[in-house]
Amino acid sequence: MDCVILIFVSSKKGNRIFIIGAGFAGENIAQEIGTRKHTGEVVAFLDDDPAKIGTKIRNIPVLGPIKEFAGILRTTPADEAIIAIPTADREELSTIYRILSKAEFNRIRIVPNISQIVNGHAHLIQARDINPEDLLTRNPVVIDLKESLSYLRGKRVLITGAGGSIGSELARQLLSGGAERLYLLGHGENSIYRIDRELRLLQEGGVGEKATVVPVIGDLQDAEFTEFILKRLKADVIFHCAAHKHVPMLEHNPVEAVKNNVFGTYNLIKAAEASGTEKLVLISTDKAVNPSCVYGVTKRIAEMLVLEERRKGLDFMVVRFGNVLGSRGSIIPLFKEQILAGGPVTVTHPETTRYFMTIPEASSLVLRAGGVGENRGLYVLDMGEPLKILELAKQMIHFYGFKEEDIPISYIGMRPGEKVSERLWSEGEEPTQTEFARIFRVESAPFPIPVGDLITKISPVCFHDGSRSSLYRNRKELRTILKEYFPGMRMPDDEPEY
To answer: Of the listed 245, 287, 299, 419, which one is catalytic?
Structure first.
């Protein structure tokens, strides 16, 4: 193909921006930058479309093909590139990223996937630095988010754990749902402050609709507070994301894991029923399947609490999935830190695999499942094929511009509570594909005892009972009780009582 190459050098000072992609998203971004001179100046579009190359859009030249510009831009001042191709798949993005990396841009940003551009308009404020997870694993499913969120229009929506990875992404996507109010509940004030501020900036930047955003600081372990706040907020829909999640950390703090993950969920369910909440969606994990760790056990109990039979007119359901790329405390940030420090990158076992999904895709599917799910339904997201952690480490080494021989990889052995591989459903569960892409309905085998009986047994370990004070915070007794119902749970030989 003939190549049209133009070298455009701006005479103005400031940030020089190249927009990759001369489609609707690129034009949207260029228009916003043109009205905000402090952000810099768009000096050119880069595109592969022969019909666009050599033309101008908004008086900005369209140059191309993209692959021809690595060498040229290296000799031409270029501060920033914004990839504005929301329909690009992983392979396309990887190719473009390699080209831009060779061109030595100071910064490379990317606009959201097409499914996240709800109103057909990309906004500059949505552009963020490109991350390894943008280029790893499979192509995300494209969901019509506006259609998926229609059931939330005019509703009051509460997100617990709204400052976490999934909670905060749900909040971002819910801006476009037409909700009347969006309550952000969390125990940590800093994380709630950050997502509250981000949502307000997104709204100011033209993203989404004008839902009233309300930050709420509180602890679901406090039953009285939980009942009080839900009656005050009158939430129609709850997305329950709040949980302690770090597997090895919770193995060392089993009582707190149960108190937060189990009793926090128990309190929320009781308060939701009492306040008239119509729908509650629990975010669960593949570690609840045949659980071997305390975290997995707590999430399985939380699932059972949500799936209990309750009065007619309520839709309480579970959405279960595997790891999400880039979440706080996950392996992606850890690998990044280790790679940039020169290594070693630590891998537990050469055969360890995990299911992975991006945070935006998981959140979109959760919102979709929340709209189509039924009461007492257990839904599992199709995570594709599991990925070897070793391969993930190698891909990240390449992403940051190193060769595998530059960064050593060290095998450190399995940590407490971890498995070599995870499953999305157990042998006693039967998955059925729903009519919606990548969402399964799972029929779960009944639990051998009423979950309320288990709650009664473990309650005096988590909350002081004067008649049974010896049980309070007794972690060994707690594990003994849980082991009876979850025989696959690891029981350390040296577990202390307190």
So the answer is: 287
